[in-house]
TrEMBL record:
Localization terms from the record: Membrane
Organism placement in taxonomy: Eukaryota, Metazoa, Chordata, Craniata, Vertebrata
Signal sequence coordinates: 1-17
Protein name per UniProt: Adenosine 3'-phospho 5'-phosphosulfate transporter 1
Transmembrane domains' residue ranges: 31-54, 108-128, 153-172, 236-255, 261-280, 301-318, 338-356, 363-386, 392-410
One of the Pfam families matching this protein, by short name: UAA
Family according to the record: Belongs to the nucleotide-sugar transporter family. SLC35B subfamily.
Membrane protein topology class: Multi-pass membrane protein
Presence of keyword Transmembrane: yes
GO CC annotation: endoplasmic reticulum membrane; Golgi membrane
Keywords annotated in UniProt: Membrane, Signal, Transmembrane, Transmembrane helix, Transport
Length: 431
C-alpha cells in the first residue's frame, strides 16, 4: 500500500516554481497522479469483468444458443442489431431543417436563441467550474474554510443529469432504431470521463484563461498527429492559422510568467493535465464519429455514453468511499450544492443547444458561436476572479481568436467552392 506514494515521491519536479502547496495537497491522497491511478483502478474493476463477459458470450455463440428473459438485454449490450447505415453521414446528424415558410426574422430569432442558450450555458459553466475548484467554502473570520477536491464527483454529477435529460428526450421523441452494441459506448465514455477529470484537476495548477487558450489551440496537436499518423496534407491557411495560434498562446503565457502569481503560474502538472485532456477528448470525438456509422441520433449517442459514464464514476466513487464523503461536503455547504447542481444543469442544457444549433444552422455557425464563448469566458474570468492580463497577454489572446475566426472563414469558403465545382474537379486555389 505504500509503494505508489514512494514512487510518486521519487518523481522530480519538472518545472521551475512548481510547489505542491499544503492547501492543495495535505496528503498523497490529494496528489493528482495518485488520484488518477486510483480512479483508473476503479474503472478497471468494472471494465475487466465486462470485457470477460463479452468475450464469454461471443465465444458461446450466444445469439444462436441463448434463451430466457435476459436474452434481449444481453443481445442489445453485446451484439446489437449490427445494422449499419449505408452512408456514414446518415447517422452523424439529422438533416438540417430548411423551412419553406420561415421568414428571415424568424431565422434571426432562432439564431439569437441558439447563441444566447450556448453562451449562457457554457459561460455560467466556466465561471462555476473555476469557483468550485479554486475557492473555499464555509470561510469565516476564524475559519479559512475548506476546498472541494474530488473532481470525479463533479464529473458524476454532470453525467447523471445529462443521462436523465437524454433519456427523457429519447423517450418522448421519435428516434431511429438503435443498432449499435451498447458496450461500444464504454470506450467513448471512459475517455470522456478522463478528459473531464483532467479539465477539472488542471484548474488547481493553472488559471482558467490559460486553460481556455490551451483548449482553443488544440488544433495544433491534432494537425501534428494527422501529419505523422495519417499522412494528411493541409492547406497553407491551416499552417498559417496554427502558427498564429501558437504565437498568441506563447505571448499570453510568457507575459504572465513574471508575475509569479499563484493563479497564473503554469506548472508542469497543469501542462500534463491539459495534454491529457486534449488526448482523451480527441479520442472521444474520433470514437463517436466511428459509432455514427450505426444509424443513431446525437441524443442517443449522448444517452449511451452517459449510461456508462454514470456506471464508471459511481462504481469508482463507491470503491474509494468518496461518494459519501462528497455528499457530506454537500450537506455541510449548501452553497457548494447549489453550484454543483447548476454546473450539471448548464452542462446538460449546453449539449442540447449544441445539437439544436448544428441541426438548424450547421457546424460553421456553431463554431463561431463557441469561439466567441471562449473569448467571453476569458474576459469574465479576469473580471470576476481578478486574473491579471498584461497588454502583451491581451494581444496574444486577440491573435488566437483572430486565427480561429480565419479558420472558420477559410473552411466555409472551401466548402462553398467545392459545392459549386462539377464532380471530379478540385479547385486550383483553395482560398
Amino acid at each position: 500500500r505504500f509503494c505508489l506514494p514512494l514512487v510518486l515521491a521519487s518523481l522530480p519536479v519538472m518545472a521551475t516554481g512548481e510547489e505542491i502547496s499544503p492547501a492543495l495537497q495535505d496528503s498523497w491522497g490529494d496528489f493528482w497522479l495518485f488520484r488518477f491511478f486510483v480512479n483508473a483502478a476503479g474503472y478497471a474493476s468494472i471494465v475487466v469483468p465486462g470485457f470477460l463477459l463479452i468475450q464469454y458470450f461471443k465465444r458461446r455463440n450466444y445469439l444462436e444458443t441463448g434463451r430466457g428473459i435476459c436474452f434481449p438485454v444481453i443481445k442489445s449490450c453485446v451484439f446489437g442489431s449490427e445494422v449499419k447505415s449505408v452512408h456514414q453521414e446518415d447517422g452523424s446528424l439529422p438533416p438540417r431543417a430548411e423551412p419553406t415558410e420561415s421568414s428571415t426574422t424568424r431565422q434571426v430569432f432562432k439564431l439569437l436563441f441558439c447563441a444566447a442558450g450556448l453562451q449562457a450555458s457554457y459561460l455560467t459553466w466556466g465561471v462555476l467550474q473555476e469557483r468550485v475548484m479554486t475557492r473555499t467554502y464555509g470561510a469565516t473570520e476564524t475559519d479559512p474554510g475548506e476546498k472541494f477536491t474530488d473532481s470525479q464527483f463533479l464529473v458524476f454529477m454532470n453525467r447523471i443529469l445529462a443521462f436523465t435529460v437524454a433519456g427523457l428526450y429519447c423517450a418522448l421523441t421519435k428516434q431511429p432504431r438503435h443498432g449499435a452494441p451498447m458496450y461500444k459506448y464504454s470506450f467513448a465514455s471512459l475517455s470522456n470521463i478522463l478528459s473531464s477529470w483532467c479539465q477539472y484537476e488542471a484548474l488547481k495548477y493553472i488559471s482558467f484563461p490559460t486553460q481556455v487558450l490551451a483548449k482553443a489551440s488544440k488544433v495544433i496537436p491534432v494537425m501534428m498527429m494527422g501529419k505523422l499518423v495519417s499522412r494528411k496534407s493541409y492547406e497553407y491557411w491551416e499552417y498559417l492559422t496554427a502558427a498564429l495560434i501558437s504565437v498568441g498562446v506563447s505571448m499570453f503565457l510568457l507575459s504572465s510568467a513574471p508575475n509569479r502569481h499563484a493563479s497564473t503560474v503554469t506548472t508542469f502538472s497543469g501542462v500534463v493535465l491539459l495534454a491529457g485532456y486534449i488526448i482523451f477528448d480527441s479520442f472521444t470525438s474520433n470514437w463517436q464519429d466511428a459509432l455514427f456509422t450505426y444509424k443513431m441520433s446525437p441524443v442517443q449517442m449522448m444517452f449511451g455514453v452517459n449510461v456508462f459514464s454514470c456506471l464508471f464514476t459511481v462504481g469508482s466513487l463507491l470503491e474509494q468511499g468518496a461518494l459519501l464523503e462528497s455528499i457530506h461536503f454537500m450537506a455541510r455547504h449548501s452553497e457548494f450544492t447549489a453550484h454543483a447542481v447548476l454546473l450539471s444543469v448548464c452542462s446538460a442544457c449546453g449539449q442540447l443547444f449544441i445539437f439544436y444549433t448544428i441541426n438548424q444552422f450547421g457546424a460553421a455557425v456553431f463554431t463561431i458561436i463557441m469561439t466567441l464563448r471562449q473569448a467571453f469566458a476569458i474576459l469574465l474570468s479576469c473580471l470576476i476572479y481578478g486574473h491579471a492580463v498584461t497588454v502583451v497577454g491581451g494581444l496574444g489572446v486577440a491573435v488566437v481568436f483572430v486565427a480561429l475566426f480565419l479558420r472558420v472563414y477559410a473552411r466555409s469558403r472551401m466548402k462553398k467552392r467545392s459545392k459549386k465545382l462539377p464532380p471530379g474537379e478540385t479547385p486550383v486555389q483553395k482560398v
